[in-house]
Design a protein that fits this description.
Layout lengths: L2 H14 L2 H8 L3 H15 L4 E3 L4 E3 L1 H23 L9 E7 L1 H18 L3 E7 L13 E5 L7 E9 L1 E5 L1 H7 L14 E3 L10 E5 L2 E5 L5 E3 L2 H9 L5 E4 H10 L3 E2 L9 E8 L6 H15 L30
Parallel strand pairs: 3-4, 3-5, 8-11
Antiparallel strand pairs: 1-2, 5-14, 6-14, 7-12, 7-13, 9-10
Helix pairs in contact: 1-2, 1-3, 1-4, 2-3, 5-9
Amino acid sequence: MNKLQAMEVFVQVVDCGSFTRAADMLQMPKATVSTLVQSLETALSAKLLHRTTRQVTVTSDGAAYYEHCVRILSDVRDAEESLSRHRLSPSGRLRVDSPTGLSSEILIPALPGFFERYPDITLELGSTDRVVDLVEEGIDCAVRGGELYDTSLIARRVGVINFVTCAAPSYVERYGMPLHPRDLERHRCVNYFSTKTGKITNWDFSRDDERIEVALPGTIALNDSNSYVKAGLAGLGVITMTDYLLTEYLATGRMVRLLPEWRSDPLPVHIVYPQNRHLSAKVRVFVEWVSELFASHPHLRLQPADSAAPGAPRPPGAFQLGQGV
C-alpha cells in the first residue's frame, strides 16, 4: 500500500462524504478508493469511517487522523515544490469555478495569456451562477462576487463590481424614461431570484445622502447574468447589471442608460479556496494571474476606500458569493 496515496484518498472521501464522489474527483475507480481506505484502516487497526447505503461519515479516530493527514500531505507538497521545477512551471489539473458573466467576458478572453505563461496547467473552468461547495465538488478555487459568509474559506479580494441601470430603446419608446427610482414602481423590471433561496432580490439606488431600496414589479425573473442581459436587450424591462457586461451595448445604442445620477452598491470580488487545503503552485499562480487581470481592468480594479459605496443589500445582477456577475 502506498501510504501517502491512501492518506490522500482518505482525505478526499472525508471531504466529499462519498466514495463515489471522491473517486470522481481523484479520477480513480471506486473499488480502488474503497480498497485503499480499507487497507489504511487495517494498517492502523482503527475504524476511520462509518459507512451506510446513504452516506459516509468520519469516526472520532478518523477525524483526528484526518487532521494529521491534511498537515502531512501539505508538508509533502511543500517539500516537493521547493525542490521541483513545478515552482517555476506548475503543471497538472486545476479546477476553478466562476460566475457566467465573469467567465465569458473577463476570464476566457484573457486565458491565452495565462496558458502562454503556464503551458503545463490543464484548466477545468466551471461557469455557473450558483454557489458551489468547493470541498464537496473538488474545486481548487473560485472567483466570487459579493459579501462572503462562508468562514471556512480563505479569501483574497481582487476587485470590485459596479452596476448600470438601463433598458432597450424599444422599451423606453414604449414606456418612457424614468426620472427617479420611485418611477420604476410603475415600470416593468427584469428581476433576479437566488438559486439558493428562490427569493427575488431587491433593487437599491443611492444619490448623495439619499438611499432607496425597493422591490420592483416585473413579468420575468431570472437567475443567470447572460440571460438577464438578453432579457433587457429584448425589451422585457429595466435591468441593473454589471457595467462590463453592458459597455458594448451602451456604446452602440442597443441599451439606454437610465437614472445616470443614481448608483447601485458595488460588490467586492474575491478568490476563495478551502482553508484546509494546501495552496499548490498551480493555484497560487492562478490567483496571482486573476489579481493582475482585475488590477488592469478599467471596470474591475479595486478603487480607493473613500470612493466605495456603503455596504448594503445587493443589486440585481450581482449576487451573494459570486452569483450572476
